[in-house]
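quick one before i forget lol
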Amino acid sequence: MKVRPLQQERNKNMDSRAFPKRMIPWKQALVTALGVYPLLLSYEWVIAQVLPVQEMDRRITLLIIVVMIATTMVFLVMPMLIKILGSWLFQKTIKTNRK
């Protein structure tokens, strides 16, 4: 296969640059659990206080709680946890010098 000069230049630049940081999977799972568990307990309590949970189908209650947790995790909790634990959560930048 013939490689064009521009493609060779791109490959050369990619080999010497640093790849972006990436989360370590087990740490990401731990941080997610740290965010979800307190939200689950608090939202379940709030829903029980606000809605007539005994008369509602359990699946509807769970759907409401899941939507509330997902929204809160994405927009509030995970950005805050990443800001606080970011240096621990991400692995160091990897540099490659392939030829």
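fyi Residues 24-89 form one domain.
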